[in-house]
Amino acid sequence: TFVVGRERQKVFAHRCVLACRCQAFLGMLSQGPAGSKDSLSSTIPPQDPFILGNVQPEVFLAVIEFLYTNSVTLNSHIALEVLTSSVEYGLQDLCKV
């Protein structure tokens, strides 16, 4: 579970999908609680959300859509923010969309 944006919208996604498709998420999900060095299988319990306050929910949902489907539907008012997020998360293929 992620809590995204100022709106604190909950976004649900499979951690294994995110970790397999994106090195940035693998690193985030592999850190474990309180900076421990646990592996992905024993990291933060599912009830503890990741807080991503600096990204709009619609933008984060577009990134998640891309990670699941390798395609994304964009509109003009979020395209630049999705590009920024794709650079931040190291998603080169999303940068090309």
From TrEMBL:
Domain BTB: 1-76
PROSITE patterns, alphabetized: BTB
Pfam families: BTB
CDD domains: BTB_POZ_BTBD19
Segments passing through the bilayer: none
Coiled coil segments of this chain: none
PANTHER family: BTB/POZ DOMAIN-CONTAINING PROTEIN 19, BTB_POZ DOMAIN-CONTAINING PROTEIN 19
Protein name: BTBDJ protein
